Amino acid sequence: MNYKQYPVHPALKNWIRYFWSYDVCTSTVEALHIRSFADRYPRLVFQDICSFSPIKDAKGTVKPICYLSGVDTEPSDAFWDSQFSHFGVSFQPHALHLLFGINAAELTNQMPDIQLLDKTEIPTLLLNAKSHIERVSILSDYFYKRISTAKGDMVIDHLFQGDWADRLGNEKNLAAIASHYQISERQLQRKFKQNVGVSARKFARIAKFEKSLPALSSADYGSLTQLAYDLEYADQSHFIKDFKLFSGFSPYEFVKQSSLGSESASFIYTEELT
């Protein structure tokens, strides 16, 4: 599997984390299963369905050639064959509201066709592109034009450009952030959910869960208690509860799974998960 990340122009850095591509073309064809966990980073996914197999959801419905995925708060499943070519964008958590002028909460746990939000030629341009580098250029131009005419929320923009976004886990920090920007905590919560798609507290819980994924790869199951404390959970049981809610696995089950690869909080497997 050939997974690559591509750098982002400085003018887009506040809204886009990176571009990525994932390509596999083998002589043998086998079914692949991707389990996507809760993920605080929205994404755009383009799939070359002319030359390769399409992505299907758990119901067997083929996903659009180019679709968006909002912040995810629950696990989901998708399937495709082991010959595929995908290209995508990993956005900053607050990007979708500014880029598409919608309440981001409407896209939480949703994966709509991009053309439902913008009647754009982007899917055709991406399909006709001769390389992933050309796709980076196409989408960079597209998003730069949208950003240049959009009006962001100054409070939320500053929050994610600074270090505030890592301090959303308790009421004292939320009150301090609201006071810093001279707004009420209720206003902060409303702005946050409109721009990001989930509450600040839910976002903080997902962030802690995501930090546990690489940590579990290098930790023994017997050290879960220490890992829970390192991630600032009250105890191991709270950590396990959140992990199962956001992934569908217990930490022990996750460690036992053998994935072929991953992108953000999505993991590719060769067979049905149990």
UniProtKB/TrEMBL annotation:
A Pfam entry, by short name: HTH_18
Please name the GO terms that the record assigns under molecular function.
Answer: DNA-binding transcription factor activity; sequence-specific DNA binding
- Which intervals hold domain HTH araC/xylS-type? 166-257
Please provide the record's keywords in A-Z order. Answer: DNA-binding, Transcription, Transcription regulation
Is Transcription given among the entry's keywords? Answer: yes
Protein's name in the database: Helix-turn-helix transcriptional regulator
Which organism does this record belong to?
Answer: Flavobacterium microcysteis
